[in-house]
Amino acid sequence: MDKGSSLWQDAAHRLARNRAAMVSVVSLFIIISVCLILPALPGLVQDPDLQNLPAKNLDPSADHWFGTDHLGRDILSRVLSGGRISIAVGLITTLVSVTIGVCWGALSGYAGGKIDALMMRIVDILYALPFLIVVILLGKTLEPLTAELTILVVGWFNPAGSDSAAINKTTAWVEPITTLVPLFIAIGTLSWLTVSRIVRAQVQSVAKQDFIEAARSLGLGHFRILFRHILPNTLGPIIVYTTLTIPGVMLLEATLSFLGLGVKPPYSSWGILIDEGANRMLSNPWLLFFPTLFFATTLFSLNFLGDGLRDALDPKSAKD
Questions:
Q1: pLDDT tens digits, 190-230
Q2: How far apart are CA 269 and CA 249, in angstroms?
Q3: What CATH class has 7-129+190-317?
């Protein structure tokens, strides 16, 4: 007698057979690992903000694997440092938007009636707003709060009496992220609209199933039915949408940074590095090539992984 397997086991098996998705997983693991780990290891990569004018505009070599820019800064260290920020923007902002969208769509779909109609009309109104302009205005409005947030977070990691060297080191890691909190909030609070509609449709479909009627007949509360029985059965589309949202958010951050509205100097992201490389691509093509290579590889990998998850989680693909 053959041993049965769950839907998630079947999905994992189908995903493992998808070569493009598996290559994407490996690529993402490598990129995220080198961006997060290598800059944290002392002496392994140079300071991304260290200027060395006598060594400016150098081609790739043993001393500078990706060459140097017009200020003599090491491109490898700047690509890794910029990747850390771009990846953080993609992950954190997507987490914010998906959390809001899932809660809003689930409540709307489960409540139904006038509450559902009201909540969806709010979504329609937000859809009509000029997304980019609203993101810019929200980012500028919340920007003054970043300095206080940086001091607060640094204080968490450095108790009273810590020396200045430890505080400066913590600040160098924390400040690039805290300065982007307005961007996280601005993008995250407006990019949940699509996922809310997806979740609403899924919740309405699952709520009609017999096992939900059985849960109601047993006297289970609405909260437990929604978050313990309905939402777990909508995770497939949510996971797929999440993997496809991250590259879109990263691309939006790159666009804003390209326009000078994202990451602020001296910190960098892949969007800023691509902007700098585009301005000097004729004299120093490496300045554009390497950040573009990392950025494009990450976006392609996330999209291929999302496609693979969509196929793996499709119930119609389940084995007989």
A1: 788 888 888 898 888 888 888 888 888 888 788 888 888 88
A2: 13
A3: mainly alpha
- Tell me the C-alpha to C-alpha distance, in Å, between residue 85 and each of 36, 132, 174, 184: 10, 20, 11, 12
CB 105 within 8 A of CB 198: yes
Cα 45 from chain centre = 25
C-alpha pair distances (Å), 239 with each of 25, 284, 308: 15, 40, 11
- Give me the residue spans of the domains in the chain: 7-129+190-317
Both tokens of residue 20? Answer: 């493009």
Residue bearing tokens 């810019």: 136
286 residue type, one letter: W
Whether the bond into 144 is cis, omega within 30 of 0: no
Q: Is the pTM of this model over 0.85?
A: no
Asked if 10 and 319 touch (Cβ cutoff 8 Å), the reply is yes
